[in-house]
Amino acid sequence: MPEQEMRQLPFEGRSTLSVRAAIAGGVVILALGFAIGFWIAAGANENGVFAATPPENVDFSPVWKAWQVIDEKFVPAAVATSTQIATSTEAVNQERVWGMIQGLAESLGDPYTFFLPPKENEIFSEDISGEFTGVGMEIAVRNQVLTVVSPLKGTPAERAGIKSGDQVLKIDNIDTEDMDISTAVSRIRGPKGSVVTLLIMREGFSEPREFKITREVINIPTIVTDIRDDVFLIEIRSFTAISPELFRRALREFVESGRYRLVIDLRGNPGGYLDAAVDMASWFLPSGRIVVTEDYAGHSDNVVHRSRGYDIFNESLGMVILVDRGSASASEILAGALRHYAKATMVGERTFGKGSVQELIEITSDTALKLTVARWLGPDGEQIPLDGLKPDMEVERTDEDREAGRDPQLEKALEVVRSL
Question: Where in the chain is the domain with CATH 3.90.226.10?
Answer without folding.
Answer: 221-419
